[in-house]
């Protein structure tokens, strides 16, 4: 196991909880729900560009579970990620508590950025509804993560896609449960909030893990590990090409043909047009 990946997950989760949950604890009345949602998403984007190439910047046990089930990582590596994430989340929440104590009049008991349902929900959502929305939101988040990565590394526009998805689920989930979708993020603040935050914590651990499992199952069907998108015979491919039979001369166009003349075969099932005019993946 690469020590850098464990350090990245620990530090990344610590910073994620401190800044993202911090926006909910100390700045929510100034930035509102939209500002909090954007903070969660943008903090993840920033951290992904720092740690994405090292550990994949999971920062979330549900994402790690999805990656494990999708055969992107070994069980021992996943266990190391989970330990780093939970410890990092508690450390981040402790640092946030230290900051909150410096603000006169700011209460930290009972809420402190924790998740909840029933009387602890802004709209009073019940247990079943909270479980359902947490599963659904985590399913979307993990599915996007698995779709934009082939192994573990999270790079380029993939980080932006995951961050924007996290912001979207927060826009939906903040009034319902406060948006968990991350067992580590839920555990850290709950440890210091105490009371009902701890008694309701089970849902925000179990539901996201269920969402991660479902996302992994779907991902293995739609995005098999190491596979490329398959286009059916005779259908237009992602770059204007066509795929087809490799024995009859009908085949995959290599791009935009430039002629109305006869095609020249360039390989098994591959034809390219020649001449004047414009043709898209023409068969002969």
Q: Tally the structural domains.
A: 2
Question: Which second-level CATH architecture of the largest domain applies?
Answer: Up-down Bundle
Fraction of residues in helix: 55-70%
Biggest sheet, spatial arrangement of strands: 1-4-3
The helix/strand series, from N terminus to C terminus, equals HHHHHHHHHEEEEE
**Could you describe the largest sheet, including whether it forms a barrel?**
3 strands, mixed
List the uncertain runs. 226-284
| Rg, Cα atoms, Å | 24 Å
Please state the overall shape, judged from the principal axes of the Cα atoms: globular
Number of strands: 5
The total count of helices amounts to: 9
Class by SSE composition:
mainly alpha
State the name of the first-level CATH class of the largest domain: Mainly Alpha
What's the end-to-end separation, in Å? 53 Å
User: Would you tell me which CATH topology of the largest domain applies?
Assistant: Glycerol uptake facilitator protein
Mean pLDDT: 83
Estimate what percentage of residues fall within beta strands.
Answer: under 5%
> Which homologous superfamily in CATH is the superfamily of the largest domain?
Glycerol uptake facilitator protein
Description:
The chain has 2 domains: 3-222, Up-down Bundle (Glycerol uptake facilitator protein); 230-284, no CATH class. Helices cover 57% and strands 5% of the residues. It has helices at residues 3-26, 28-55, 61-69, 75-100, 127-148, 157-173, 183-193, 196-199, 201-222; strands spanning 252-253, 256-257, 264-267, 270-272, 279-280. The strands form 2 sheets. The protein has a 3-stranded mixed β-sheet, with no helix packed on it. The protein has a two-stranded antiparallel sheet with strand order 2-5. It is globular, with a radius of gyration of 24 Å. The N and C termini lie far apart (53 Å). It is a multi-pass membrane protein.
């Amino acid at each position: 196991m690469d020590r850098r990946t464990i350090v990245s997950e620990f530090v990344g989760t610590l910073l994620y909880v401190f800044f993202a949950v911090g926006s909910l604890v100390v700045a929510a009345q100034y930035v509102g729900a939209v500002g909090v949602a954007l903070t969660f998403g943008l903090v993840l984007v920033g951290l992904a560009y720092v740690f994405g190439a090292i550990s994949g910047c999971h920062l979330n046990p549900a994402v790690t579970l999805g990656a494990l089930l999708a055969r992107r990582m070994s069980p021992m590596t996943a266990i190391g990620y989970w330990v780093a994430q939970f410890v990092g989340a508690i450390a981040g929440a402790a640092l946030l508590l230290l900051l909150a104590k410096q603000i006169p009049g700011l209460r930290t008991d009972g809420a402190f950025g924790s998740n909840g349902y029933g009387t602890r929900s802004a709209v009073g959502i019940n247990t079943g509804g909270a479980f359902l929305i947490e599963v659904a939101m985590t399913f979307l988040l993990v599915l996007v993560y698995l779709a934009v990565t082939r192994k573990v590394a999270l790079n380029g526009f993939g980080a932006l896609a995951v961050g924007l998805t996290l912001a979207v689920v927060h826009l939906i989930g903040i009034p319902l449960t406060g948006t968990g979708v991350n067992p580590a993020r839920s555990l850290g603040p709950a440890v210091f909030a105490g009371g009902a935050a701890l008694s309701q914590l089970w849902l925000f651990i179990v539901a996201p893990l269920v969402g991660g499992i479902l996302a992994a199952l779907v991902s293995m069907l739609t995005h098999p590990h190491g596979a490329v998108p398959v286009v059916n015979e005779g259908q237009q491919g992602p770059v204007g090409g066509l795929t087809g039979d490799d024995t009859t001369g009908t085949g995959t166009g290599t791009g935009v043909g430039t002629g109305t003349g006869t095609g020249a075969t360039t390989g098994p099932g591959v034809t390219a047009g020649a001449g004047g005019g414009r043709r898209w993946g023409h068969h002969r």
